[in-house]
Amino acid sequence: MSNNEIKVNGLHCSSCVFAVENSIKDLDGVEDAKADLDTGIVKLTYDDNKVSLDDIDEAVKEAGFSMEK
């Protein structure tokens, strides 16, 4: 399992946090995703043999947000 932090732009409320977390958690190989509303930082635990940061970026985009790279 890998641990990583990503920065997500556009988190304005708890609904935004919920949408991003659930979109990422729906990916096969993601064990956990916790977003911080104040900082926009999402702490991830995932299997990098099953899911990549590009996959996570796509999930964030599908939720309507953007990931800083």
The CATH class is identified as: Alpha Beta
Query: Count the strands?
Result: 4
Order of helices and strands: EHEEHE
Number of domains: 1
Q: What can you tell me about this protein's structure?
A:
The chain has 69 residues and is an alpha+beta fold. The chain has one domain (2-68): Alpha-Beta Plaits (2-Layer Sandwich). It is built from 2 helices and 4 strands. The protein has helices at 14-25, 53-62; strands at 2-9, 30-35, 41-46, 66-68. It has a 4-stranded antiparallel sheet with strand order 2-3-1-4.
Please supply descriptive tags for the structure shown above.
single chain, 69 residues, alpha+beta, Alpha-Beta Plaits, four-stranded antiparallel beta sheet, 2 helices, 4 strands, 32% helix, 33% strand
Summarize the structure.
The protein has 69 residues and is α+β, with helices and mostly antiparallel strands. It has helices spanning 14-25, 53-62; strands at residues 2-9, 30-35, 41-46, 66-68.
How do the strands and helices of this protein lay out in sequence?
Blueprint: E1 2-9, H1 14-25, E2 30-35, E3 41-46, H2 53-62, E4 66-68
Antiparallel strand pairs: 1-3, 1-4, 2-3
